[in-house]
Design goal:
Blueprint: E1 5-9, E2 16-22, E3 26-33, E4 42-44, E5 58-60, E6 64-67, E7 71-74, H1 82-95
Antiparallel strand pairs: 1-2, 1-7, 2-3, 3-5, 3-6, 4-5
């Protein structure tokens, strides 16, 4: 079972989001997109987690803290490569230490 899962985020116009953590009321997530708006604010992924889209994918560096009711359906086909998973975990450890 994968550590991180992708869900539809209803607040981000249906963009897929990577769930980083969740509680009974909130979920922390990072948006996935194919067209980033600004340079340096996104993690460039080596492989697109969506197997149906060959285009380049980016994960937003900011982890949103949204109400749990905004989390949509689980995207079962989405998977992270080992390289991308390590890069994301390194980023989260570096920027979200507690």
């Amino acid at each position: 079972m994968p550590k991180y899962k992708f869900y539809i985020n209803r607040l981000t116009r249906g963009h897929p989001s990577l769930e980083v953590s969740s509680t009974k009321k909130k979920w922390k997530n990072m948006e996935l997109t194919t067209h980033p708006t600004k340079k340096g604010r996104y993690i460039s992924l080596k492989e697109n987690p969506d197997p149906d889209r060959p285009s380049k994918a980016y994960l937003r560096k900011y982890a949103r803290d949204d109400p749990l009711r905004t989390r949509g359906d689980l995207l079962k086909k989405f998977n992270l490569s080992e390289e991308d998973l390590k890069e994301i975990e390194d980023y989260l450890i570096q920027h979200y230490k507690k």
